[in-house]
Amino acid sequence: MQAAGILDDTLQPTQRFINIVKLGQAARGTATFNPIRESMKEGCNQCHAKDFVANHFKASDQIIKESDHEFAKAIKAVQGLYQDGILQKPENWEYAPDVLQFYDNKTSVEQELYLIFMEYRQRAFQGAFHDSTDYMNWYGWAPLKTSVNTILEEVGKMRLEAAPHLMKNIIVVDMEDGMGSWGGDNSINFQPKVKMSSSGFEIGGVLSATDVGPVGKLISQDAQLVIIAAVKNETQDGLYMLKNTQGDFVAWDEKFSALVPVADLTLASSQGVEILKGQMTIDGKPVTGMVNIYLGLIVGNKLLYFPKTIDVNI
Fold this sequence. Notes:
Elements: H1 15-23, H2 30-45, H3 50-83, H4 108-129, H5 133-162, E1 171-174, E2 180-182, E3 188-197, E4 200-209, E5 222-232, E6 238-242, E7 248-251, E8 263-266, E9 270-278, E10 281-282, E11 285-286, E12 290-299, E13 302-305, E14 310-313
């Protein structure tokens, strides 16, 4: 329903919900739908045992749930392209992606979303409830799965192509006065990698940069890596900065001039970066709960600060 603009990002009804579902009566509530469903069962029960009919309805309901589960993967992937700025929402669109804009969709992934919505999901539904297993599978479920995989593969390719520009909304902070501004198209990106083992965490990734940036050429510039963490639990809730790559955090007073670098770097077009390796601790005590890790680079008197986080739940 999000892909159709019926519910918003917080799963609340939109104006379109009121116009189409409520006023246009495009969908039935349980008070209207359930009596119709029971009437259908009564018709089936004239020839079939009640348990047989009940099991058939239950199995058919499950087909719809499984179809929607797969459909949701594709919707979420395309939503992510809009959220990260890889796709731009047209000015006259209120929702994106929007399967009801099927004539105006500009990308193949959104056209595939519409095919799932209008054809494959419907065929899976129809085939299941009409007890046509062959039709349900070969004309509904199978092409639905193919479409979802096609979308996920294409989204991956689009992200790779856009990788140098994903972090265009980096914040550039003046270390002296603490004033920040959007960095624009600075062409610097970090692809994180997180691994957990019995000895703790291994968090690192690949840092890429180009010669276009808000502080001049980035490649070959000296930089210092700084890490900030927002910890959320009952006893350690607050902001901390990483003191070393062994995972020791200390309290941070939100003054950028007080940030302690954990590593010195010379920026390259692409390089591996190790953030920490070991147990996360604060004052010698293990960190628990949700940890949002922010990465920043000090270049000269500027802090290039990534608003995106590496999220770890301990």
